[in-house]
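The pair is set out directly below:
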Amino acid sequence: MSKHARAPIATALAGALLSCLPGGAVLRPEPSGPPAGLPRIAPARQPNPADARPSYAAYCRTVAAGCTGLFAQYASEEKCLERCRREGWALGRAGDTKGDSVGCRAEWASRAATDPAGSCAHAGVASPMCVVGEPLPTVPPLDPAATQVLGLYDGGDAQGWEAAGRRARKEILGERVRKALAARGLTLAIRDLRDGTPDDDETARSRAIVTALCDATLPGARGYLLWLRANMEAGRKVMILNDLGAFLEPGSPGGIGNEWVNLVFEPLGVEYRGSWTENGRVLRTTRADPTLFLRGRVPKASAAGHYYRFVRTGDDLAVFLEVERTDIPDSASPVVFAGRRGGFALARYYEDVDGREHVDLSKLLEVVIPSR
């Protein structure tokens, strides 16, 4: 994107100076050009800001200065540099507003100086504009005094359990989550995503979102993920139980792509990388906090027979259960965790295949959705 020309500003300033001369005197410019007989020297070419090559260091300085507090994208400038090097982003061009590059992220970071709420999400790792080329929808700001929590399920879910969507609505949300929230003076409004995402009035009354989806397919998955991310940027904590539920859209058997899924997982503090297996023989537990599980009984990874690779990216991540694949190096994966913007409890670890809970939901929700 080209920057605003500076010539009009210089002209206006010169006019202001002339109008301030005492006694109506007129400042006459010196004759232009060299004296007769001397060669004319071409003026030096003024640098064009659009020609500047972005750099990791300049980007990290800009995003650290413009995106702070709720809108912070990295724990520090040093962590930003570490992530840049690990990702190996192309430098791109200054002023770009799309494209998976430093230049694109730097442009949004520079806009954050005047519009952090509208720009900082696009200045980070999982930038909607730079990675998928889509803006975030506008959602109501968070009301810190709100006492309602949104509970979302997919009425079309049917994988794993018979009528899984109805079960998510009745048992997971309607009984377990509602009871845990009521003990802390919070209410739950349950909505079916088959009816679309909640409207602005409903969202404005809500302080957090709990989802209980049980398969990978959701109509309008991309729009749902953008809406969920927008609410995270607005300050609403998001707690995902069992499955994100938005890896596929009807008619797209190949999936919508990890870049879309990570619009939500990255702000939670992990990067989703797939590598699914149901082979319990290659799974083992590498870290566990028994205090977050009912009766202190941590589910065995080998018995769960369920693995996705989530790479930890958040420094503030509280990991309650981590498992790995013994057939893949460096495969430790947090499957129950809480971060700055929400939390996650993967299916078979939140509850077993028969629907019996492993996680002490009251304790987990207290961590993810703290009392006012």
Summary: DSSP finds twelve helices and ten strands in the chain.
